[in-house]
Amino acid sequence: MLAITDLSFERYFEPVFEPLSFSVGESELVLVTGANGSGKTTLLQLLAGLLTAAEGHISAQQPALYAGHKVAIKDDLSVLENIRFMLQFMGRRDSAPGSEQELIEAVGLASVAGQHGRTLSAGQRKRCAMARLWFCDEKLWLLDEPYSNLDQDGTALLNNILQQHLQAGGACVMASHGSLKPQGIDFKEIELKSARHLVGAA
Amino acid sequence: MSQPSPASAFLALLRRDFLLAFRRRAELLQPLVFLLVVVTLFPLGVGPSPQLLSTIAPGVIWIAALLASVLSLDSLFRSDFEDGTLEQMVLSGQPLSLIALSRMLSHWLLTGLPIVVLAPFLAMLMNLPDAGVLILVKSLLIGTPILSLIGAIGAALIVSLKRGGQLLSLLVFPLFVPLLILATSAVGSAVTGLPFDGQLGLMLAYLVASLTLAPFATAVALKLSLS
After folding, report:
1. Helix (H) or strand (E) holding A132
2. Which has the closest alpha carbon to A25: A68, A50, A61, A56?
3. Is residue B95 packed enough to be buried (19+ CB in 10 Å), middle (13-18) or exposed (0-12)?
């Protein structure tokens, strides 16, 4: 589904991580780990197509869903309005829950559906952004620290939808700094190494 | 069903922008209040002589409109950039130029159009002769969309900078110079009874050129700002 060969990225003419090669197949979950600043977010943004690689090749057959640190929730819109806009703008897959209300219930935000984005907690914002996983059409998911800020219940919800996605033949690349790993799902781990020592050598 | 048509995404974005603007009504009024304040300050500064005021009226109203419009341009893409909505829009697969056009249209409807509506009142404040009022309104009706269209290119270029307001004015004001010259000359000609169709025609040409080119330039600028 996705194959990466000798990928590297430069910021201000300095490489961010060591050249990287791996592939992601159907129903496969790849966990990218690494210390803070090792370039996990950069890698996911490269895979999403937001950044351009310095060297190497990314082969992706289809557009990917990218969920980054920025949750794309509008402070002045309610949870319901935020989700409605996402649906109207990005569309939905056929098997997705029919109504916005059902989507909100699926992510456990029914009690705050009318509240504005600015009044939500970090975890609730994350859940609101997560709603996209329930209706998006993309086969490849790129999730950046999806477990951060989520409580136990939210983590279980995320694991659940992730499992469904993988069983349906989807794939996922997830970045995490190690302490938070998906439970009960098989994954392939890739450790990202910072390329800072290479800079010193050169 | 997978992806909504570009037209329905365009409308969804327009609807969202109006809802957001309605939630932040105070911000919506800022450019208009600014315009009103600048125009009322002029008689206090240059003296209340009706003769002098009517001579400088077209220039004063147009410069104030220009400043008011640029003032509100800075935030055109900023909040979408900061909360990550812009990233998602770029990745959504919808044409970025259409997204840009939708933001330009909402900016004009929420800032440019109110300026046009306010113009006759401003003309009265500045003692502009009756013969010039209609042309002033016409020139603003043609000119304010250009402010939104060209201004959006600048706003997209500076969106990743924390404080880009001054840079934005440096970027876009040179492009507004022909507009200012044509518009004030048209109003001046109308007041003195000379023909003014040529100036309005050139302004229309500028509008068509920016309407066809600015959305694409803005799309490229947005992509640059994101990487």
Report:
1. helix A132-135
2. A61
3. middle
Tens digit of each residue's pLDDT (9 = 90 or more) over B15-37: 999 999 999 888 889 999 999 99
Measured between alpha carbons, how far is A28 from A24 in angstroms, rounded to an integer?
6
Q: What is the pLDDT of residue B1?
A: 47
Q: Quick one: fold of A1-63+138-202?
A: Rossmann fold (3.40.50)
Owner of token pair 């812009």: B86
- Residue B160 pLDDT level (bands cut at 50, 70, 90): confident
Instruction: Spell out the domain ranges in chain A.
Output: 1-63+138-202, 67-137
Q: What's the Rg (C-alpha) of chain A?
A: 17
Chain A / chain B CB contacts < 8 angstroms: 74
The ipTM (two decimal places) reads: 0.85
Which segments within chain B are labelled E, that is strand? none
How many angstroms separate the CA atoms of B37 and B219, rounded?
34
Closest chain A CA to residue B25 = A76
- Average pLDDT rounded to a whole number, residues A113-128: 90
For residue B2, what pLDDT is reported?
A: 65
Contact B1 A91 (CB under 8 A): yes
